[in-house]
Records
---
Amino acid sequence: MEEYVIEMLNITKSFPGIKANDDITLRLKKGEIHALLGENGAGKSTLMSVLFGLYQPDSGTIKKDGKPVKISNPNDANDLNIGMVHQHFKLVEVFTVLDNIILGVEPNKFGFLTKKEAREKVVALSQKYSLSVEPDALVEDISVGMQQRVEILKMLYRDNDILIFDEPTAVLTPQEIKELMSIMRGLAAEGKSILFITHKLNEIMEVADRCTVLRKGKLIGTVEVAQTNREELSKMMVGRPISFEVEKQDIEPGKTVLKVENVVVPSKLHKNNAVKGISFEVREGEIVCLAGIEGNGQSEFVYALTGIEKMSSGKITLCGSDISKASIRKRSLLGISHIPEDRHKYGLVLDFSLAENLVLQHYREKLFQRFGFIRFKEVRNYARRLIEIYDIRSGQGPDTIARSMSGGNQQKAILAREIDKNPQLLVAIQPTRGLDIGAIENIHSLIVKQRDSGKAVLLVSLELDEVMNVSDRILVMYEGKIAGEFEPSKTTVEELGLYMAGAGDKARSTGQGG
Amino acid sequence: MKKVREFLGRRSVASFLSSLISIIIGLVFGYLLLLAFDSEKALFGIKQILFAGVSSPAKIAKVLYQAAPLVLTGLSVGFAFKTGLFNIGASGQYMVGACFALYTGIVLRQPWYVAMTAAMLGGAIWGLIPGLCKALFNVNEVITSIMFNWIGLFAVNLFFSNTPKILANYYGSANANRTANLAAANARAIIPTLGLDKLLKSPFMNISILIAVAIAVVAFIVLNRTTFGYELKACGFNKNASIYAGINAKRNTALSMTIAGCLAGIGGGIYYLSGTVQYTIEKVLLSMGFNGIPVALLAQSNPIATIFSATFISYIQVGGDAMQPEFAKEIIDIIISVIIYLSAVSLLVKGLITRLAERKKEAAPSPGQDTAQTPDDSKQEATS
Amino acid sequence: AGDTGETTAAVTTKGDGTYEIALVTDVGNIDDKSFNEGAWNGVKEYAEANGVTYAYYRPTEDSTAARVETIGTAVEKGAKIVVCPGFLFEEAIYNVQDVYPNVYFLLLDGEPHTADYSTYKTSPNVHCILYQEEQAGYLAGYAAVMDGYTKLGFLGGMDVPAVIRYGFGFVQGADAAAAAKGLAKDSVEIKYWYSDVFAPNDDIKTKMSGWYTEGTQVVFSCGGGIYLSAVAAAEAADGKVIGVDVDQSGESDLIITSAMKGLTESVKLSLTSFYAAGKKWDASYAGKTATLGAKDKGVGLPTAASSWRLEKFTVAEYEALFAKLADGTIVVSNATDKPPVTTVVKVDYQS
Amino acid sequence: MIILADIIAATVLFAVPLLLVALGGMFSERSGVINIALEGTMIIGALFGCLFLNFADQGGWGKLHPQLAMLAAVAVAAASGIVYSLLLAVASVSLKADQTIGGTALNMLAPAFAIVLTWAIQGQGKTTIYIPNWIRITKATLGMAAAAGREKGFWETLFFKSMFLTTPIAFLLLAAAIVVMYKTRFGLRLRSCGEHPQAADAVGINVYKMRYSGVLISGFLAGIGGIAFTIAAGSGFQSTVAGYGFLALAVMIFGNWKPWRILGAAVFFAFFKVIGAYSGSLAFLPDFKGVGSSQYIYQMLPYIVTMIVLIFSSKKSRAPKAEGIPYDKGKR
Ligand SMILES: Nc1ncnc2c1ncn2[C@@H]1O[C@H](COP(=O)(O)OP(=O)(O)OP(=O)(O)O)[C@@H](O)[C@H]1O
Ligand SMILES: Nc1ncnc2c1ncn2[C@@H]1O[C@H](COP(=O)(O)OP(=O)(O)OP(=O)(O)O)[C@@H](O)[C@H]1O
Ligand SMILES: [Mg+2]
Ligand SMILES: [Mg+2]
């Protein structure tokens, strides 16, 4: 059929021990946005990697414009005008934006770079598709959103017309997601065909024309988005209905657990303070959410709260004791637990076993050591208990090397460790980033359970859905200050978005004026 | 549970086997080399390499004598490896350790165990400074260790040149370029033999190998059994996560280098307090510290395996000496480097074997990476 | 350039893997063009001329125990006589001389004694040779100053007795020549430095380079292979070098003369006597120490036309001087504990 | 004044091998492979370069065309460096072995191999390969009249006292390294492989090929560096390069993996090393009277000064992100 630009027919791809793609057929129409949906590990990235030439399928064929093609490496893909934005950006941090865009297809004379023409082309493209970038900025200095625009420009620069986006929205702020959606629409209108992987159903509903669902490596089906709904999609994906509402009991907040007074934290990136004097309280039995666009001081505040960075002034009190100057370990002992945003960097020692990771905070406790000697038997028993309670799935139980576990299970291990400490205060930063909705449901319910048992929770999230669903109180941070305080039931996503974008004050003042 | 144990057992077996295969290939290569040089005498040469080390009690003594400092410098390098650091400064730590030991023994007239403690202290200082530079200023420990090797070399020379009482000529010798003969200066500073020298009929024999083994065992226990070792390894594998977990990573980095320094320092002490050698004013870095690197690599940084790898290397070195004058003893170094090279490659083979075996068994995901520093080989060995 | 063309097998054997004449090295290599090589050449020349098997052995480390061990290896490998160049063998020989009463030893530059120097003893199977290096140094210093050089350098290896004797002899000779020429006080200068090593290295070369730039005209390079560093520096600066131990004139055109001691000759002579006496020391060798100086032609400068590169100082003048040393008219102090007193020459002892 | 020229000349002479080898290390590490085997590669380069010079000397034709012979010797050194570093590349790129282990093995292998080969060629116990004395560039080489007498002028000392072909070659190679690294497609691709090989792979760059190139270039440069050092040290080849390979590694880190800074670091280091040897001649330097063997104070100096500078400059130091990690296409 002429209609399809790309046909992936009966693709099967195995890795040792697992069939990542099992007889999958996917057809992409010209000019459509085609969503790909599936749980973590369902095989979406694998399928796309096959299309992009990173993996070779064990069987199956790929057709471009009806003709069978062989794609054995990214160069082949590029020759067929197929481009890909990877789940984890593939950008060289110390290169400039321009260098990153031209890498691999450098304009040159006798091997010497001729960047001038490249620059002109990039500038023209970025204007045409309103993808604003700074060609000479280093990638490490630009925002995640701009990095994504660089990735898109990389494809456009290569004149690709089949564009693969692997979980592009997982790392973006709501505003950036909006922008991306409109860019994608623009590209599709230009006649480019887009494959779009996401875990977020509302994004699919908003932007996609059709959606293919995978589950455990198998094709479940392809549906027209206009003729389906979130519930149906999620059922196809997980195999059971998913509740989108987080169930919470009504409880009256108790005593103050965390008291933050005028905390100021210097920034590592620039001379200004990252956190410019914030004050708030978190009480027993409530989930307080710090919402805000990335880079507005939330991370720095959490660093100061947990003791990783020093604050320059202010006071933090935990259950009545001043911890402003306490060490990380002291704070942990006094009852702070926290789930870091980057689980690989901060959450786990990937080369340790699961058991060793599960006692990363507790190995000094009497139960696990005697006279400085670790009691490995107790450590294993403890790990086994957590594995059972929190349903952490891994190959060899306590002895699994953490590196070999899937992202979702790694996250569960961290949660298990932190919640099992029975902390006075649980600090969770982006706890569900990149996870599928099944896993998210699970994690949300664990967090809520913690609150229901009368503990305090401080949640930092960029996802407005999560913010609205889970929290009892919302504090929006903007440029290092708290721009406003809301109750989820009395506000809207739109209002929050405005405050996060810094328009809150204006909105309020015009509102007062009118 | 049994299955798991079986598997773990298999893993350490695999790592042992991979080393063994490397060694065998290395020796075969060595034999071919001998054949190339002198086909008539090649058989004699390889016999010497293989058996000279046990040909007489005195040769056994020599093997152990050379192995003792190698165990310690190997431990030094390996300990740092385990905690994510590359201590290329064992040479400097070794020299400073020797200097402290000799000063304490000769000038301060202390018994050997005091001198040995001083050696440890000297090495510790020479490890601490690069450790601090790394912890406080984030200066690459490889470059600081290299600098401290040379600073150590010259500092020791300077110190000896300005400490007349430590030099041989103060005790009657005509030689102002080496430290005093311990027998002449202070016999109490010589490591005791407990009659072993009589037993093996060799002046090289004393209890230094026993000390080295004891220290290796302690290092093993510290690394794999204690909270301290747990912290050190955690920092080595993932500094950020360790900091998040409340571990003082800076302190641990400095401590780890200090301990590595201690170990290399004891190595210097153990060699120069043997009563056989005198420290000579040197212009080039002593190779003993660098030899710790292959020892540690062959042992895959496991302290217990270090004992064996050091003994093995010393063993074939003794064999190499016995090949003279027919063959150059440097052929042994060629063999050792081939073995190290192969073991780098065979670690991969080992990883592959275990992964495959495990895949079949559990049909489940497996360790993603198999590097030289598989963190818990050793621990699992002990528990299974 | 060196004589790398020579590829004579260093080991000859009848095929049974035993070697009758053994040389054990202390530190340094047998190709140092100086002390070790001088002794090794004696072994080699004698053995090849007379069809005897010979070999050399390197100890595993720089210690008496290792030297003892290596001598043992040599004996196991059939050594009838072991040549041990260097005073570092003094204790080792003391330890082994009675252990192997049927093996004979030739010790160069030393006499056997205990570790604490309390007991000296030379058993009948040992012969020791000492050289009056101070006389060789004296000749070199005298010749250099007589040849018109006024800025001299002394580059010693390690400050061990033999090297110190060379150096202090050199200073005395230079001073005597300056006085004989009636030069003004301090008009002859000697920079005096020990490199603390017998192997050449880049630091020595750089240091020598500095000396030459500052005006030093000739450097007496005294010890092992370090002459290579001195020559390399001299080449770049058109400086001159004085060799040591053996006639080093073949190593570089810049080597104007060499302060020799008759290593090769005396080893050969000893071996000849050893074999003549039926593979043992005769009475004049057994347990004796020979001190070789000018009187025995045991020291001197090379006088062959190809080696004589001094321009003003003639061979005849040299021979007259040599005769005075030989007959005792001139006495050179062999003290090594403090520097000689000079009248004209100014010595700059550097560290 | 002449002493100043002398010091500068000596500094350049010793900076050259450090520069070349550190640049080599830079290429390797920038492609993602830690090349700890620089020391060994230098030894191999020096070994074959010196053997070649010797061969040219004995053939008699070396002396007739000294600089041509020297150029050929440099080529031989470079080629042998490349071949040797191939061993590292095979282990660490193709076989994905631990780079430190492979490098350590090669460092051990080189001197032993050199000794065994030297003996095999020259005879047992002949450990030194002598370097002919015609390789130096003099005024005569350039067809200029030699000055009479030994009192040489400033410029003459500066340019002709210790000038070997390796010096101009080193500066040409430095210029080439800068251009290749920053102005060519190859350089951009190479750097991307050291920073983010997955990214490079995804845009169709063959990471293995780039890493091979990086390692082989480092072998090329380290080989030349080896012969440059041996010539500078002036003591013939004795199966060692006196730790200069490790020093070059330090210079590379000190130079922050960037060519200009590596030049600075090499010169800095060489200067302090040379100063020590001239301490007796420079009146303004303290002579530490009363301290025995004060030469050692000066010999320590370059290392101590480097340490201090490092401590102050460490904040800006940044290694290629992916160095030391074997790249495996299949792995994520
Ligand atoms: N390089 C690999 N080696 C081994 N197994 C792999 C590899 N890549 C993928 N897999 C397997 O294939 C399965 C599918 O992985 P894939 O990355 O395609 O999932 P995904 O649907 O993209 O998940 P996510 O939503 O988390 O991104 C995984 O469960 C994993 O076991
Ligand atoms: N190097 C590897 N070797 C073997 N199996 C692997 C490897 N890397 C990942 N896996 C397997 O792949 C599966 C999915 O891993 P993956 O990293 O895709 O998880 P994820 O949910 O996509 O996490 P993330 O959120 O980080 O993308 C897991 O079951 C894991 O066991
Ligand atoms: Mg994922
Ligand atoms: Mg994916």
---
Amino acid sequence: MASRPRYAHRNIPGTTIFDGVQAQKGYALNKMCYSFNSAENRAAFLADEEAYCRKFGLSEVQRKAIAARDVLGLIAEGGNVYYLAKFAGIFNLNVQDLGALQTGMSVEAFRQKLVEAAR
Amino acid sequence: MASRPRYAHRNIPGTTIFDGVQAQKGYALNKMCYSFNSAENRAAFLADEEAYCRKFGLSEVQRKAIAARDVLGLIAEGGNVYYLAKFAGIFNLNVQDLGALQTGMSVEAFRQKLVEAAR
Amino acid sequence: MARIIGAVTTSHVPAIGNAIARGMQEDPYWKPFFRGWDGVHDWLATAKPDVAVVVYNDHGLQFFLDKLPTFAVGAAAEYQNADEGWGLPTLPPYRGNPDLSWHVIESLVADEFDITTCQEMVVDHAFTLPLKLMWPDAEQCPVMTLPVAVNTVQHPLPTPARCYKFGRALGRAVESYGEDLKVVILGTGGLSHQLDGQRAGFINKAFDAMCMDKLVGEPEALTRYSIDDLVEQAGTQGVEVINWLTARAALSGTVNKVHSNYHIPISNTASGLMVLENRA
Amino acid sequence: MARIIGAVTTSHVPAIGNAIARGMQEDPYWKPFFRGWDGVHDWLATAKPDVAVVVYNDHGLQFFLDKLPTFAVGAAAEYQNADEGWGLPTLPPYRGNPDLSWHVIESLVADEFDITTCQEMVVDHAFTLPLKLMWPDAEQCPVMTLPVAVNTVQHPLPTPARCYKFGRALGRAVESYGEDLKVVILGTGGLSHQLDGQRAGFINKAFDAMCMDKLVGEPEALTRYSIDDLVEQAGTQGVEVINWLTARAALSGTVNKVHSNYHIPISNTASGLMVLENRA
Ligand SMILES: [Fe+3]
Ligand SMILES: [Fe+3]
């Protein structure tokens, strides 16, 4: 489509730029994660994850990625990490745990990689 | 104050420019009027006007102006006509009725004045 | 490529909604207003736009003073009308075009406009009534829509100079979109009126005539006015004419006035209407 | 008149909040980070600002994607911190200065910045943690605050060139305020980090060093980067460096680097810190 050049973002390996395409795809998913700012909503999610996802209108692919804690899958489906971090927080997963999950490393190896970035 | 010249608006007789000074003064009042977008809230207001005003934290001067349907008083207290119109709507007062109230004319005379503006 | 075929600028007085709901189009009070739309319908019969970009101002339905954007741009698949508090009948939902919206948003931000992007947005009479007046017989609005809300409620408002630049950028954004779409730009609000204060009922026919004249061939002339100038000359709500200026600025070609109407009063307002055709 | 005495630019990693809550400042992991603040405390002891203008980005506490502003400016008497979802302790409310806010808002809009004005605004860790790090022993933040939130969440983000112009205008706005106030500008976020995707854990020490160097004496140099450049060079969240650029651009005098610190890693982030003094 002729409109795309202006709209498209650079292709950066291992990186998804959260633009309009992703924002549309992930709207319901991110809205659900945004709701996790409230302790009451976090409890409601834990009480019945599937029902909570349906209430926010997540797609089946998104629901499965939520159930599997599949972070890369959630990002592919339009999840934004600023909101996904609130989902991860429910399970006491921090951004290093997320990093390990996404890179397929152990948390220890991921931490070591970060330390080595100082060199 | 040296900052004021940039900030101040022109003095136009019979006219209040809804700027930061007015927006601060009228915040609670306008927020109450904004709530009148909902039929349920309009009913709650009608059921107990005084309690509804207190819930939104209106000042005593504002509460009295609401009770008296004193439009000029409400504007002096920071009311914005876009929101006040929702308050007026509860009593089926339209903007011509408001115009008459504010100019001290009969509705008929106010309407006539508008017709004459066409000349 | 998308092409802007023209602009329709019009008043958006809520009372119009009541008149439509009650079928008062032939009533002596309303007839000079509704008859004024015949020329728009004639133009639309051949112009046949696919999309309406609606430059309007929200009157406290979508936005409150807690978070008030200067320019808000819709990016939703659908926009709902809703209860504004005074019993105007709610109109059916409007189709959006998210792909066009995001293209426009990317273009505007690249051009240094600091918009608020709205993936959910309810639209008030300033958006719905002009579309209803354009297509009175359609149950649902027949074109796709893109709402662009300008702050005319809480000062500081964007200056006419800024609105003109914003309109130019909006036009560039739309016309760089790769789909073959015919786009009409609406600018709603005004003309001169003042609802509040002891000056309520203020109308300025001469100033309106000047605006309608300049908007056709020399819209930059209006950028020399300050917002305070507009309040003084057009009334506190007459400042809504900045929506007309924004819409007009989106036309970059040779502009031809196809139709206009001006009638005093509708409710407290001098109602104006223009169809400006955009020739490449 | 108000005077901008300098800028403090810093990372705002949430984990800092946990480290503070647990008193881990002397822990080997955290010590190089917290010791880096000694130089800021020395500067503050004599600089004694009255107001902090905090340029930061909201991480989905105040704003959602339904209505996302490019630049949001606070105009409240008080700003509350709130639950962000991961159990960070909530800090006490922050005092605003509505009169200063409205002056700044008037000035920015007159200068053609299309801000969203916020009379109610909750503030997240990107606002609260830097203030806590500046005044660790104060129960409540001892200065008045003015939050300025920049969209770094949903693309299109404002370009570095736009942020630079916005920062310049912010500086002019503050310094034209008539009260004798000493103002410090905070820029929070960055430096290089990426939380998401297979590139998670990406850090770019050389790019960070270049940014910290250019920001002192030649900040315009950073305006040649596009947002995509920043994503590539600094990581998806490293783009938060636009908040540093905005803050730096608010300093118009001769700028002197009083203190800096750089430490890898804090959580997934290269943490940077600078105190830039503004000389008339
Ligand atoms: Fe209007
Ligand atoms: Fe951040």
